[in-house]
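Amino acid chain
________________
===
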Amino acid sequence: MTDSSQAAKAPIEMPPVPETPDIKTGRLSPQEYSENFSDLLPALDRRRAVIEADRCYFCYDAPCVEACPTGIDIPSFIHKISTNNVKGAATDILTANIMGGACARVCPVEELCEDACVRNTQNSQPVKIGRLQRYAVDGLMARDDKQIFTRKASTGKKVAVVGGGPAGMSCAHRLATLGHDVVVFEAHEKAGGLNEYGIAAYKLPDDFAQQELDYILSIGGIEIRYGQALGEQIKLEDLRRDYDAVFLGMGLAGVNKLGLDGEDLQGVENAVDYIAQLRQAKDVADLPVGRKIVVIGGGNTAIDIAIQTKRLGAEDVTLVYRRGENEMSATWHEQDLAQENGVLIKHWAQPKRLIGWNGHVRQIEFEYTQLDGSGKLMGTGDTFTLLVDTVYKAIGQYFVPSPLQDGGRDLLTITPKGKIAVNEDCQTSLDNVWAGGDCTEGQDLTVAAVEDGKRAAIAIDRALTS
């Protein structure tokens, strides 16, 4: 046997794993940061908006309206854009969805209104409903006479709203227009919920969430008390005693764990926490980011953290999901966006082991997965290992019921899935308590939360004035 053949059969020596992770700030130039965290899509100008509006067929019983959780009269507002009645178009939108500006930017329109557009049946692109909605709402916000709502005469009734996110603020605004006084109890330093803390920065840039909040508050009759968490500074029984009605919209406080040894290693982080940190950063260049990133999950949060770390200057970002692309809860548009941003998506693999060095995660071992004969997910036994600087967990959140318990006993009915049980009016098992948004079962969408708040407010008003 020749020396060359012996060398060919010798095991390949892998380079040693670096002892310290490569995590640092300022990986990009100021111009690159500015471009990476500017608007994902540019706003339509007047000419492009009219051209796009003219593509609408203005359908009777339009399927796009049926697909919109808030029931916006889409043909009506698009027709008003085509006739240059931008304020009227925005009125159609905001009357149905007070957060129509944010929803125009973050809604998965590719699976809602635009997916239902009849142009899809003609081998054509759907009308860009989301971008037209943004054009109308942004046009209104730029006007001096932008306030289209007025309050009814005071009813003398007081309503407590727990949580200043989309559901809570939607409920508060509708109640205020109906003449009720509202106090919003918000646990954080800012209201806005996911719009403020949980949505990718490139989707809602320029502090838009707070601009929208300011518009909601400008109607009057709404007070926000910050640093007020249910179960800590405030109690449900006290709110029921002191207010005529209560709306619960506190979202999901719990973050699912991987359940692996080493999960407490440095560099193993919750995606939602880092996204919140990014959203509140005065300068994204000051945020430390690893060179090699692994994201575990298949939802929109997983996509958001993957793209944002890539845009912060990470060199290699790999998103790993235990099932196939069709089972990912992230929309096809979000998956495409991730890959366009250089994110590598690996399907059919689950985390098996976290490997640390000097207290910091340095590698993560995955096991390939497949479905057995009954359709149950199982590991194949084959594994692969990725070198990492940071691992982000994005495998879902859950509702924490303890603030609604007394001595371990639930104060209201909790569903088998661990969320607050409500009826079609968003009323809980308690006669003067309503709930909506992510803390109840339904679509995990901003637009769905807004609709819950609106529907609950109408039911609360009916109960208080009947």
Observations:
- Confidence is low (pLDDT under 50) at residues 1-8.
